[in-house]
């Protein structure tokens, strides 16, 4: 396991895309106050904006899982401006982790004030 990733939506335990993390090591939860969460319909999106905290699950993952997550999140390292999500490092209680940040406007979406999706 070479990377940490912090997830807040469909990748969380019991959610629709959690199977992508079946070989990952669950390290625990955290609340990231540097993020604000928005309801995008079938999934949430977090943007870098202060809040009371977005609840994340932190996992240790390998290169293959990270590549699979990039595909799921429509993250294109060679063309970030075209990506639906950007991958940014953020501090967690478990260490510096990759977090997928929504790369579109959120003004028309409902803010999830609880920080839990």
UniProtKB/TrEMBL annotation:
Transmembrane segments: none
Sequence ranges assigned to domain Gamma-glutamylcyclotransferase AIG2-like in this UniProt record: 5-117
Domain of life: Bacteria
InterPro entries to which the protein is assigned, alphabetical: AIG2-like_dom (IPR009288), GGCT-like (IPR013024), GGCT-like_sf (IPR036568)
Name of this chain's protein: Gamma-glutamylcyclotransferase family protein
Biological source species: Marinobacter albus
